[in-house]
Each structure stands twice: as C-alpha cells, then as structure tokens.
What we know:
Mean pLDDT: 96
Low-confidence stretches: none
Strand content: 15-25%
Shape: globular
Number of helices: 12
Number of strands: 12
Order of helices and strands: HHHHEHEHEEHEEHEHHEEEHEEH
Strand order of the largest sheet: 8-9-10-7-6-11-12
Radius of gyration: 21 Å
Largest sheet: 7 strands, mixed
Amino acid sequence: MTYSERVAAFVALGQRLRQLSSDEIAVLSAQARNANAWFDQPNVTAALNGIAHLLDEEPLRHWSGRYPTEPTTPRTVGVVMAGNIPLVGFHDLLCVLISGHTLLAKPSKDDRLLMRWVADELIKIEPRFAERLQFEERLNAADAYIATGSDNTARYFEYYFAKKPHIIRRNRTSIAVLTGHETPHDLGLLGADIFRYYGLGCRNVSKMYVPVGYQFTDLLDSLEPWHSVLDHHKYNNNYDYNKSILLVNRVPHFDSGFLLLTESPQLVSPISVVHYAAYKNEVNLVDQLTDIAEQTQCIVSSGGLYPGSFPFGRAQTPAVSDYADGIDTMAFLAELA
C-alpha cells in the first residue's frame, strides 16, 4: 500500500465511525461493558467520536505528511496497549500503520473487544491491512516496541525491551489551573475533563491549582450536571469508600454529593476525588507546575489561556498531533527505517 492509500483507508474509517447508527453503538457498548464494567455507552460513544475526530482528513494529512511517507525498510513494531479507557491504544495503531510499518498489537484484556472491532472495520475498508495488523499475546518477533503501563510495569518493559528501540510510557495525570475569574459556563466545561471516563484516563484532571482563598461554591454548583456519575455502581462505591476515609481521618474536604475535593500535595487522586493546591502568585504557580512536569499529561485552563494548556472541556479530545507523554511517536517510527 502507498502512503495515500493508507491515509484514505483511515479517513474512510473515520467516516464509518461517524455514520454508526444508534443501534450499532448500543450493541457494541453492551458487549464492551460485559467485558469491562467501566465501558458504558456514553464513554464508548465518546471514545468513538474522539477517534473520528482524529481521522478528519485535512488535519490527518497535514500531520502525517510532516514525516517520511514511506519507510526505507518497513519494521515490525510491537505495541503493548493500555486498557484504562475505551480504545486508548488507537493512536499507536494509527501511527504504526500510517507510517508504513507492521503492527503486532497486544491490547489490554480490558479493551480487547473494542480494539479488535476497530481493527476489523479498518480491514474491511482496506483488506491489505490484514497483513500489516496482527494481534498477539507475545511480541518477541518485533523489531521495536511501544508500551504503555504503570510505573511498576514500565520497569519490566525497560528490562525486556532494553536491547531494541522502544518508547515506554508511565503513569501520568492531568491538572487544571483556575484563577477565580472563571464563569459558571467555564467551570461547567471543566466537568468533562474531570468526569469523562469516570476519571480513569491520564488526561482526566486529578488535581487543581487555585489561588489562595479560592471559593469552591461556584465550581461545585457548575459541576452539578455530572451528578449522574453516581448511577454507575463502581463509581458510587468509590465515592462512598473515599468519603468514609476522609470522614474517619477527619480530613477537611468539600463534598458535592458525587465529588470530593481535598487539599493535598499528591498529584494523583482516587476515583471520585480531586486534589487541589493553592498558589500565591504566578511565579509560585509556575514553580509548582515545574515540579510535576514529568508526571503531567496535560493542563487545562479557561479558554486555554494558561500557556501550553487546553481549554476546559477539551482534555479528552486531543488532536492527532498531541502525543502521549509528549513523545513524538511518528518521529520514533521514522527513525526505525
């Protein structure tokens, strides 16, 4: 396949996802939820829409065209995919295949069904991808590796893949910067960054930085439309458990009835909890953000006004050029050739 044929296939996949009927989405979501209770219909739908967004033709061609369009020597790339949110490994699949290499994919057991479904849809559109896209339990035959996991599993990846080119991704999370001047509409948009995928993704906001003396009333009121997260039994169980821990330990906190806010130096928070820290001025804020830069996936702020941040509500809809951990996957793949 030529570069143009590969791009055309992915553009067609995006069109296919945008044209899914409500019945198709309902059936696919039900199957996904049977395998992973967190993957309910709203979140599966959001993931499919996110992929369709990545495959918009103009930005896809602009992005992929910045790199070599044909590898001198196609390689076999093993990809160990995460499964914390639906289809989280798709961007790696896209990068490997559109760059002209062969993919050996090991999806997480938590997301195997959706990844295989999307791969099957791609192969229906372009059957020649069947030779370039394989699902394997063991990736010994790969020439290079991309692996995503926890800090603990990353140490194993580093050991096993040390002798070959690799990208190893570790735990990261995302943060929000508030100034106290946000409107209720702004704060409402922040809800998607906190609650989409029930807070399980690395692009979910788990910590907020607020000015000293910040009043949380408007924020909590603006997040009220997300109260329905309690309808999910696993989220509800986490909320009840974390609330009891805070109460038993007499930790000061704010409680919206479905979200717990507590001041903490910790960056990562449990499900249903968001940590916060106060800053005195912009210099102090920059110092705090610099300290956690290596653990930060993305930053959100009202309108994306803070340098390098996404607008509220956009954390879970990255552009195709927004790489996990800030590592340019396409540049890595280009160097293999």
